Amino acid sequence: MQIKAKYIIGIFLSGLICYSLIFYFKPFRPIEKNIRIEKIIVTKHKRTLDLISNDTIIKTYKVSLGIVPKEKKEFEGDKKTPEGKYTIDNKSSKSNYHKNLSITYPNQKDIENANKYDKNAGGLIKIHGIRNGFGWIGRFHLLFDWTLGCIAVTNREIDELYELIEIGTPIEIRK
Q: Is 67 within a domain?
């Protein structure tokens, strides 16, 4: 009986390792550099970031969100990812998280909402890569929501976004 249990556990662990390797090493298909991205749509409940060109989704990335992902950001420090319409207003390669694209959060509606709680709306919401020194985590960062309200992708993905996305590109973050 003990040999059978060890055999079953061995098969289970082997399957788990194989699945993890397939997940981690999923092929990366880059976008052609000449495509103009017109809009970004983040859908929180799907944990996706879609790039839109000519009213067509040309690529979808899986993302991690704020630690409290299901609710709309209400004020600074609530660890929620905002919802609404914003724009990309800056790019930085000097970041604690590989590279980032800055989002124009908060807008006037966000500020008014935070004022209801007598709190600051916050800011510094970004699309960013993995924390410097931890890039080896790669796609495993998707196993849970871990940011303080930002939208996280792998370093390879933020490298691609950094090159493709122009400052002024609209971004809509949906439930």
A: yes
Please, are residues 82 and 142 in contact by the beta-carbon 8 Å criterion?
no
Alpha carbon distances (Å) from 62 to 74, 118, 120 = 24, 34, 30
Structural domain of residue 146, as residue ranges? 32-174
Question: Is 25 among the domain residues?
Answer: no
Amino acid identity for residue 90 in this structure? N
Per the structure, how many domains does the chain have? 1
Q: What are the pLDDT digits (tens) for 9-24? A: 777 767 666 666 665 6
Tell me the whole-structure pTM to 2 decimals.
Answer: 0.86
pLDDT tens, residue by residue, 21-51: 665 666 678 888 889 999 999 999 999 999 9
Specify if 6 maps to a domain. Answer: no
Q: Is residue 96 part of a domain?
A: yes
Backbone angles phi, psi at 50, to 5 degrees: -105, 135
Burial (CB < 10 A; 0-12, 13-18, 19+), residue 55, is exposed
- The DSSP code for 147 is B
